[in-house]
Specification:
This protein is mainly β. It is built from two helices and 16 strands.
Length: 284
């Protein structure tokens, strides 16, 4: 498979990049034993939407830029009957290398964060173990899942879990180092499968293993859009120790108190979050 030479195309990639917020050209997840067991939706009381992955019954892994608003956060999971179950977030932590005051594509640090839930998600739900993550090489197939919209302007299509197949194009040094993936047939020469508005924080998987977290997306070459081209991913293999230790720290937080429990929820819309503390208990 002939792949684009990424260092020569970085400027074009970044020109249309946005925080990745839906799966373009993705299939709706209908298997009760599939990814709906592990992939969740994150909503803020100010109406923003991201995706995430259950890594323990009480801990969700997502992108740090998703938790920037001073707001209440809740996680919405889907049970075996595809009924929605909402759980409040009670605490969170951002990766210590994450740098506030930047956009996802200009982030020089690590775009990862964890949320602790008020109640565990058990039974119908199956956490994914980030310790199983391994480096992903160029040309290797990966899978994307998220609750975003199917098109940059189709906000009404968000909040539905979709998945699609991508191929790794290798790593790219922008402000930080990201893994870049694209439609395996179109390779971002034309609009194809990829992340869009609503998928930030969602998982990238390989052979069922959690290997990355979606950070941002960019449109295909000369497309003028921000979706359906390149999907930029924070690789997890090197960050698994931080995830494990921070998840353990969060599980010791108590007694649980909901983040801004009086916050009212607006109709969630995919979009870019602003910089602010996500919770009354946020560790940096």
């Amino acid at each position: 498979m002939r792949l684009p030479i990424l260092p020569l195309t970085a400027a074009a990639l970044l020109a249309s990049a946005v925080s990745a917020h839906a799966v373009v050209r993705g299939a709706v997840v209908r298997n009760p034993n599939g990814l709906r067991q592990s992939v969740v939706r994150i909503e803020s009381s100010r109406g923003e939407l991201c995706s995430g992955t259950l890594v323990t019954p009480t801990i969700v892994l997502t992108a740090a830029h998703c938790l920037q608003q001073r707001a209440a956060y809740r996680v919405v999971a889907v049970d075996r009957a595809f009924r929605q179950r909402a759980v409040m977030a009670v605490a969170g932590t951002l990766h210590p290398a994450f740098v506030p005051g930047t956009t996802p594509r200009t982030q020089p640090g690590v775009d990862l964060a964890l949320l602790k839930l008020a109640q565990p998600l058990r039974g119908d739900f199956a956490p994914l173990n980030p310790r199983a993550a391994a480096p992903v090489g160029a040309g290797q197939p990966v899978e994307l899942a998220g609750f975003g919209a199917v098109d940059e302007n189709a906000f009404g299509t968000a909040r539905v879990l979709r998945q699609t197949q991508l191929v790794s194009l290798g790593t790219l040094q922008v402000a930080n180092r990201v893994l870049v993936a694209a439609d395996p047939r179109r390779l971002a020469a034309r609009t194809g499968a990829g992340a869009c508005r609503g998928d930030s924080g969602g998982p990238i998987l390989q052979d069922g293993r959690l290997v990355g977290v979606v950070s941002w997306s960019a449109g295909a070459f000369r497309s003028g859009t921000a979706c359906g081209g390149f999907t930029a991913v924070t690789p997890l293999a090197e960050h698994a120790p931080w995830i494990a230790s921070s998840a353990a720290d969060l599980d010791r937080v108590g007694p649980p108190q909901a983040v801004n429990p009086s916050g009212r929820y607006a109709a969630s819309r995919p979009g870019r979050a602003s910089r602010a503390n996500p919770a009354s208990r946020v560790h940096r």
